[in-house]
Amino acid sequence: MRYVRYLCIATFAVALISVALANRGIVTLQVLPVEVSGLFAVNPSIELPLFVVILGSILAGLMVGFVWEWVREYGERAEAAKQAREMRRLQRELAKLRAEKNEGKDEVLTLLDQAS
After folding, report:
1. Which of 48, 58, 49, 67 is closest to 16 using CA atoms?
2. pLDDT per residue rounded down to tens, the chain (116 residues)
3. Do both 107 and 58 map to the same domain?
4. Which of the residues 43, 48, 51, 93 could staple to 23 if both were Cys, CB 3.0 to 4.6 A apart?
5. Do 91 and 55 share a structural domain?
6. DSSP 3-state assignment of 26?
7. What are phi and psi of 63, to 5 degrees?
8. What b/e sequence results for 48-71 when a residue is b if at least 16 CB atoms lie within 10 Å of its CB, and e otherwise?
9. Same domain membership, residue 80 and residue 32
10. What distance, in Å, lies between the first and last C-alpha atoms of the chain?
């Protein structure tokens, strides 16, 4: 299984390198519209190799997706934590009740009762 993972990673790396080599041309990327850039007195364009724009867009999309999914699953994580706290509380209460029930009994009988 480990070798299949390495094969997939190597295939992905070769694909990314081939995209980078095939798209080395310089492109002008407009970051802001010209009208908006006049208000902030910044240069609205950047010249980058095309593969940087492509791979940067993929990376930005992945990051947005990861953050979106993390925020979406917040409720589920909070509910799981709440249930875990409740389970620990109930286990402590059960141990306390068993200790009260077995108080004054023989140790062997207490151990047998706790095993069930």
Report:
1. 58
2. 889 999 999 999 999 899 888 988 999 988 888 777 777 777 778 899 998 998 899 999 999 999 999 999 999 999 999 999 999 999 999 888 877 876 777 776 777 776 76
3. no
4. 51
5. no
6. strand
7. -65, -45
8. eebbbeeeeeeeeeeeeeeeeeee
9. no
10. 41
Instruction: Specify the pairing of strand 26-30 against strand 45-49.
Output: antiparallel
Instruction: Write a three-state SS string for 101-116.
Output: HCCCCCHHHHHHHHHC
The SS3 call for residue 14 is helix
Global confidence as pTM: 0.61
Range of the domain at 107: 75-115
Residue with tokens 């190597």: 10
